[in-house]
Amino acid sequence: MKNRFLYFLLLLPTGVLAQFKEVPMNLTTSTGDLKGALIIPENAMSYPVVLLLPGSGPTDRNGNSIAGVKANSYRLIAEGLAQQGIATLLIDKRGIGASKASLKTEAGLLFDDYVKDAVGWIQLLRKTKGIKAVFIAGHSEGSLIGMLAAEKTKVQGYISIAGPARSADEILVEQLGRMAPQLRSMADSLLKRLKNGEKLDSVPPNLYFLLRPSIQPYIKNWIHYTPCAELKKLKIPILIIQGTTDIQVATHEAEQLAICQPKASLKVIEGMNHVLKTSGNDLKENKATYTNPVLPLSDHLIGTISTFVQENN
Asked: Is 58 exposed, middle or buried (0-12, 13-18, 19+ CB in 10 A)?
């Protein structure tokens, strides 16, 4: 009988055993409403909350993207934290998912807009009934956004997940150099000109995807910031998380962040990749995790985040 009952449980849909509830959230901005979902521990009357900021590109609240990522990583984080008594706010960035209408044109978007949005979400959370502490966590590009937002408003702690230490122009040139070495020097020169305040009236066709006129204001604003320099400014508890098999952000980036801010705690998770799943270094195996939404998160990720939150709220 016991074995039959266990078998029945294994066949139940995930939602039947869910230990959380989901509450829609709305943030009104001057250009339109931003949408999110607050994942709350079931039956909890008060709880800390983590605002989870997505990575670059068309990444939605669940950590998926029309660019081909279907790992569901952010949703899995929220559900895992709910089991530890911690809420998570998952958000669609402006222009993405349910927040699509808040972005009219690509040329009208600046990196600082994402920072302002993060500050707005934090202020909304601080007014929300039941929330006793607010933490901010940023994944990849969201790591820098989270740093800047934490400078501008009150949070109990900051978490960087797979966040780089260097400015985005350095990272872009390095990544491009690996994919197309012949373009590295040209890209480096153009990005330096942007960083110096120049407008690029002419962009070579083979770099148009990176430096098209409509995206130049965003890139120019983004590369103005260096994560290491921004992290030094924070006076709150800081946790830096990095995986050893991340093919997009190397472990030394996290190590450099920890050097820049000696008060930060550094957790390197063996075998965790950029979408926060367990993988080896084989490129094909690693990339396969990007499209596997049922693959669980890497071991120790939820425990690392929840311990930091519980110790600091």
From this structure: middle
**Which domains are present in the chain?**
13-166+226-312 (3.40.50.1820), 168-224 (no CATH)
Structure token digits, residue 304: 């690392």
Which of 16-29 are b and which e, b meaning 16 or more Cβ less than 10 Å from the residue's Cβ?
eeeebeeeebebee
- DSSP structure string for 54-119: --SSSB-TTS-BTTS----HHHHHHHHHHTTT-EEEEEPPTTSGGGGGG---GGG--HHHHHHHHH
- State whether residue 206 is helix, strand or coil: helix
Closest CA to 297 of 36, 37, 117, 52: 52
From the centroid of its chain, how far is CA 233?
A: 20
Q: For residue range 35-57, what is the model confidence (pLDDT) as tens digits?
A: 999 999 998 899 999 999 999 99
43's tokens: 């039956």
Which tokens go with 3? 């074995």
Q: Report the alpha-carbon distance of residue 55 to residue 113 in Å, rounded.
A: 14
Strands 47-53 and 265-269: unpaired
What pLDDT score does 32 carry? Answer: 94
How far, in whole angstroms, is CA 164 from its chain's centroid? Answer: 12
Query: Taking 50 as the threshold, does the pLDDT of residue 5 lie above it?
Result: no
pTM for this predicted structure = 0.92
- What string of DSSP letters covers 239-301? EEEEETT-SSS-HHHHHHHHHH-TTSEEEEETTB-TTSBB--S-HHHHHHGGG-TTSPBPTTH
Q: What CA dihedral angle connects 25, 95, 72 and 264, to 10 degrees? A: -80
